[in-house]
Amino acid sequence: MSKESSHPEFGRLAGFLRSISLRFQLLVALQFLLLLPSIILLILLGSRSVLEIKESLPYLLPFYSAIAIASLTILFFLGLWRILTKPSARQAARSLEEKFPELKDDVTNSLLLFDQLTNSEPSNPISKGLITAHLKKTAEAISSIHPRQVVSLKKALGHLRILLPLMVAFSIVFAIDPTFVNRSLALILHPFSNMPVQKTFISVEPQGSVILRGSPIIIRALAEGYVPKNLALSIWPEQGEVKRMTMEPEGNGRFVYQIESAQSSFRFQAFHGGSASPIYGVRVVDPPDIRKVTLTLTPPDYTGLPEEMKEEGHIEALKGTAAKLEIQVTKGVIEGKLILNQGSEFPLKVQGERLSGSLLIFYPGAYSIRVKNDLGFENPNPVHYQVRLLPDRYPEAEIISPAQDLEISGNEVIPVLYSAKDDFGITAIRLGYQTGGIERFINLKSSQGGRFLGPEVFKWDLGSLSLTAGDRLLYRIEASDNDAISGPKLGYSRTFSLSVRDEKARAAKEGEEMEQIANRLLDLLADHLEEVGDKEHLMKGMDEILKQVDRNLEQMRERVERFDIEALKGNLNSLRERISREPKERVTQEMEKLALLAEEMAKRARMKELEALAREMRNRQSRLLDSLHDLKERFTQEGLEAVMKELKKIEELLRSVMEVLNKFAAGLPDEFMNSQELEGLDFQSMFKDLEELQKKLASGDIAGALEAAQRLLQALSEMMAAMGRAGAQSGMSAFDRIQGEMSRQAGELDRILAEQREILKETEKIDKEVRRKLEEEAEKRLSQFRSRLKEILEKLETSLPHEQADSIKELERLLGTERLERFSQLLKELEKELSGNEEAQKRIGELKEIEEGFNPDPKEMMAPDTRTKFPGLSSRQEILKERTKSIKEKLEMLAQLFPGMDSEILHDIKGAEESMGEASKELRKEDAPGAIPPEQEAIRRLSKSQQSMQQMAQQMAMRMQAMRWGYPLVYDPRAGWYYGPWIPQPTLPQPEFRRPRERGFTGIDREEFETPSKDAYRVPKIFREKVMESLKEEVPSQYRREVERYFRGLTE
Known about the structure:
It contains 27 helices and 28 strands. It is an alpha+beta fold.
C-alpha cells in the first residue's frame, strides 16, 4: 500500500504538484520549439549580410560559420536538457506559493510534515491528527486552483515577437532572392569555398570583325581567377567621346553586352578594377537596303471598290486582290527577289535603284524583299511585310419579329419582319423551314445586289403548310452574298420554332370547365331560391367559383375568349360585394344572367372544338393529296403506308365530328344545330368513299385511288363549308341582335354626359360670380372695422402671457393680408387655448362678433338675373335624370340578351341618376355650391360607364371577328368565292347566297388587278357643283320625310 493511497489528502496534493511540474516541462518545450527556428532564421538572414561584405572581409566567412554551428549546438543540447529535467515537488510548491501568496508556506510545510510523518521514530512522537488536518486544509485550499493558473503556456507565445518578424523578413528576402538560402547554407557548411581569388584575367570576343551598318553585335567577355560581380565596357567610336557601359552577367564568369544597331566603326575593351582585356576594333559598312515600298491594290470586281495606293509594304486586302509593288533601294543593286513565307521566290525587275513586281493575293502570310549589291552584300534581316486577308464577312440575317418560339394553331398568317445586310452585296434571300425532317424554302424579295435589305415583312400563310396538332416547325432566314472569288456565302438568322397546339383538346377541356362553372352557378341559384343557407353560404360558393374562374383566366392568356371570362368574373365579384344590400329578386336575376353567360361560353367552347376538328380535317386533306401525288410519281411501300396513315387520321376525325354533333348536341348553339346547312350531311356516304379509297390503294390502283380521293375530298369540303356557314351564322346572331341597340345607347350616353358637363359648367359659373361678390363685400366690411379690430388685438395682447404673443402677431398678419378664413380658424383655436382667461375670452368674443359680420348671406348678394338661371338649370337637370333613367332601363333589358354585360355599368348609371336628383334639389334651393359635388359625381359615374361601354364594344367586335368562320378554314365547293356571303371576292361579282351548288373541285379564282388610287373615288366636279346648288334650295316635299329619316338615323 503506497503512501498516497494511505493518505488521500496528500495524494491530491502530490497529484496537483505533478501536474504543475508537467506543465513546466511543456512550457520549456514550447519555448525551445519557438526559439530554435528563430535562431535558424537569424543565422540565415545574417549570412546574407556576411555574403555582401565578403569582398572587403573575406576571412569573416569561416568565423561566422563556426559561431553559427556552435550556437545551434549549444541551443539544441541546452533545450533538450531543460525539457528532460523534471522540476521537483518542492520547486512546484514554491512556484505555487509565489503565484498565490495567500497559501503562505502551507504547501511546503505539508510536504515536510508528511515526510516527518512517514519517517518518524517511536522516540520522537508526532501528532498525526494535526498533520492530517493540515494536509486536508492545504488540499482543500488548492482544490479551487487549476494548474494553468500556476503555469501559463501563453508565456511561450512571447517568443513569437521574435519569430514572426524574422519570418516576415525571411519571406521578403526569399521573394527577392530565392537563391540566397542555398548560398547561406553553403556559407555555413563550406565556408572556405567562398574565399576570393587574388587575380582576374579577362578575354573578349569578337577580336576584330567587319559588319554591316545597322546590324546587331554581341560583345562577350570571360573572367577567370577572381570573378567580379560585373564588368565594365569602354567603347571608342570613330567620332565622339569614349562611352562606358556595364556588361550583363551570364554566370560562371561570363558577361555580355549587345549593341542593337552598329552605326559606325569603333574600338572596345572590357575591364574591372586594375584588370582589363586587350583592345579590339569593329569595322562598320553600309548594306543595300529598302528605302521605300509603294503598293497599288486593285480589289476584285464584285466589290465595286476603287484602287488603293499605300506608302508601306504591309498588305491588307480582300482575297483576289492584285498588288503591284514599286521598290526604291538606298544604293544600286544587281539582283532583287520577292520571297514568300511558303518558300517561293519571284524575281523582281531591276532598274538601277528601282525594282518592280506584282503579286496576286489569295492567302494570308508574309513576304520579304532581298537585294544584293555588286560587293556581294545583301540587305540583312529584310523586313517581313505582313499579308493579311480582309474578311469578306458572311451576310447577316435577322428575324426581328416574331423573335421567339411560338405556339400556334396552324392556320395563322404570321407577319415575319426580317432584315439582312452584307459588306458588299446581297444576291438572294429566302425563308427556310423544316417540318417532318424535310427542309423547304420560300424565295423572298430580291435585294438587287444592295448591301442592306429591310426591314421587310413577309406574310407567311401557315394554312398552306397543312400543319396538324403536335407538329413542330423550325424556320430561319437565309441570305447569300455576291462573292465571286470564293463563291457565294450563306448567312443565317437565329432559328425559331413554331409548335402546333392541340386546339380540339384545349377546346374540349375549356368546354368541360365552363359546363362545371355553369352547373355550379345553377346549383348556387337553386340554393338561393330554396333558401338553403344564408348569404354567407352564397358568398362562400361564389368564392369557390371565382377561384375556378381565375384558373381559367390564367390559361386563356391574351385570347379573345378571355373577355367573356373577365366579364363573368367582374359581374360575379360585383354581385358578391352587393349581395348583402340587394333584394332577393335582384340577386336571383343577376345569378340567372351569370348562369346563362357561363352556358353560352360552354357552347362557344364546343363550337371551337368542332372548328378545330374541321381545320385539322382540311390539313389532312392537303396531306392526303400530296401523298397520293407522290405515290403516283413513285410507288413505294413507305409512301403507301403514309397514305394509309392519313386516311386513318381522316376517318378518326370524321368520327370525332359525328361524336361531337351527336354527344354534345345540347351543348352546341341552337342556331347551329337547327341550321339548314347541316340538314344534308351524309356521313355514311363519306365512310363508304373512305372504304373504297382504301381498297383501291390495297389493290395498287393509284389512278382509281386518286379518283376516289377526289370524290371524298369534295364531299368533305362540302361538309366543312356547310358547317362553316352554320357556325358563322350562329356565332353572329346573338351579337347582331344587340349591336345596333348598344350603339344607340352608347350615343345617348355620350349626349347625356355632354349635357351634364354643360350644366356643371353653368353652375360653376354662377358659383364663381357669387363668390366674387361675396369677397368684394367682405373686403368692404373689413376696411370699415379694421381699426376697431387692431384696437381689440392690442388689448388682447396685453392680457396674454409673453409666450403667446406670436399668436396675436399672426392674427394681425392674416388681417393685413385679408385671409379671413384662416383668421377665423386661428381665432377659434386661440379661444380653446385661453378658456381659463376671462379677459382674453371677452376680447375674443368681440373679435368673433365683428368677424361674423364680414360674411354676408350669399342669397342677398345674388343678382336678379342670376336667380332666374336656377329654375332652368333645375329643369334641365331633372330632364337629364329622366333620360338617364330611360337608358338604364334599356340597358337592363339588353343585359338579359347579353349576359356578359358588365353589371358595374348599370350600377354606375343608377348612381349617376341619384346624383342628378340631388343636384336638381340643390338647384331648386338656389344653392350652387351644394349642387356642384353631386353634378361632379354624376359626371364621374357617367364617364366611368362610358369607358366601360366603349371597352365592351371593342370586346364585342373582337369576339364577333373571332366567331366568324370567315378566315380561310375551308373553301366553299362553289368555285370562285369564299364560303359565307359576308366576304366576297374583291374583283368578282358577289354571287347569290342560295344559288344552286356546282359540282367540281374546291378552289379559288385569281386575277391580276391594280389597286385604285384615291382619285378613282373622287366625285366628278360637275356632279359636286350640282349637289352644292341643290343644297341651297329647299327639300322637295315628296322627299322631305325620307331626308329627315336619313339624318335621324345618322344621329342615332
